[in-house]
Amino acid sequence: MEGLVQTHGAKAMERPGGWRGFVADWASDQRAFKNVSWGKAMMWIFLLSDTFIFGCFLLSYMTVRMSTTDAWPNPSEVFALEIAGTHMPLILIAIMTFVLITSSGTMAMAVNCGYRKDRVRTATLLIVTAILGATFVGMQAFEWSKLISEGVRPWGNPWGAAQFGSSFFMITGFHGTHVTIGVIFLLIVARKVWRGDYDTGRPGFFTSRRGRYEIVEITGLYWHFVDLVWVFIFALFYLW
Amino acid sequence: MAHGTAPHAAPAHGTAAAQEEGQQHPIRLYLVVWGWLFVLSTLSYLVDFFHLQGLLRWSLILLFMMLKAGLIVAVFMHMAWERLALGYAILLPPLAVLVFVAIMVFESEHTLLTRLQFFSQGAN
Predict the structure, then answer these.
(1) What is the pLDDT of residues A8-44, one digit of tens each?
(2) In terms of CA atoms, which chain B residue is nearest residue A215?
(3) Interchain CB distance below 8 Å, A236 and B19
(4) Taking CA atoms, what residue in A is nearest to B77?
(5) Looking at residue B9, what is its pLDDT?
(6) pTM
(7) For a surface tag, which of A52, A186, A207, B96 has the fewest beta carbons within 10 Å of its beta carbon?
(8) CA-closest candidate to residue A54, choices A145, A216, A177
(9) Residue B15 pLDDT more than 60?
(10) Contact between A32 and B85 using a beta-carbon 8 Å cutoff
(11) CB–CB of A202/A210 below 8 Å?
(12) Which of B37, B42, B51, B84 should be substituted to probe chain A, the one whose Cβ sees the most A Cβ atoms within 10 Å?
């Protein structure tokens, strides 16, 4: 035991006992994720908790869809659009998917440029990502207003099982909120990159800590997660 | 013992350096993954477009979904290059959701059964 403490370095001090020891043990010096900064580890843990939230939404959607005695509305037809006289099933959702994937691509590029300290390119790519995200939210707003005008409500719709509306508004609404928050974060980070905050070590307005270009990667983790959730919603809600 | 720690020290230094530089990967890799995500999304859209039904539809949807999710997590979110401690801490817990899914499948089948019974009685 003593040898174990010794190997941790020259300043092998005695650990405090009791509640002080409890706090000290949990507060410092105990590091599981060796080469990951606390910011990145915390973002991953937040994303894990968010996974459970969306997991429970999709799970409750599965439960109501399996247990209803009414027919489930056909998403392929509900989300179809007439474009230039042709009837395109599910086309809006497909376009939204491509927009979000494209934004994930530009985000990955932004992270790459950020670590190369290419200020202008990083900021530009972040803004492009934010614009694509805003486009996605705009199309979602269009989709919502179209469905509402057709009479879809959380408690019923003209085509079948009433649970369709509640699942739809809950799942896509929560996801759209995530995208909106992501867009806001992207714009904040883009402004900081543009101003050179991560080069000059300017303290953040909220935390008063100096940022690093790793912030771009951490924001990127959140953004890719939003795309990831959409992959599951697209497959399980729209295509199933 | 000292001999044993020496090879360990070198990779530890390597990862420390990698941490300072962050996750650096060639742009080409991102473009390839991006392309694959487009292809997989198109394929899953085509599943609906060609009205595939039944087991084929569901298995294709799930296959494309898992491939896309895997690419995003592994490459875009850099999980493939993180240490296993982080990977398992993040990727294992969601498997508990699958247990929840199994429980709720039984639950909803039971609900459906009781509803069918109740509604058929009401019709008489």
Answers:
(1) 444 556 778 888 888 877 776 667 787 888 889 999 9
(2) B22
(3) no
(4) A221
(5) 38
(6) 0.85
(7) A207
(8) A177
(9) no
(10) yes
(11) yes
(12) B37
Q: Which two tokens stand for residue A98?
A: 């491509």
Continuous H helices in A87-209: 91-115, 119-149, 163-195, 197-200
Query: Which residue from A minimizes the CA distance to B99?
Result: A59
In chain B, residues with a C-beta closer than 8 Å to the C-beta of A235 are: 44, 61-62, 64-65
- Mean pLDDT of the region B91-101: 93
Beta carbons within 10 angstroms of residue A178's beta carbon: 20
Strand partners, A153: A156
Across the interface, of B15, B45, B69, the residue whose CB is closest to A34 is B15
**Whether the predicted pLDDT of B20 surpasses 50:** no
pLDDT in tens, A196-233: 888 888 888 777 888 888 899 999 999 999 999 999 99
Residue contact B76–A104, C-beta within 8 A = yes
Q: Using CA coordinates, name the residue in chain B closest to A229.
A: B69
Closest CA to A229 of A42, A46, A53: A53
Question: For A118, which DSSP code?
Answer: -
Q: How confident is the model at residue A89 (pLDDT cuts 50, 70, 90)?
A: confident
Residue A41's alpha-carbon distances to A25, A34, A77, A83, B106, in angstroms, are: 18, 10, 42, 45, 36
Q: Are A54 and A176 contacting, i.e. CB atoms less than 8 angstroms apart? A: no
The CA distance from B122 to the nearest CA of chain A, in Å, is 14
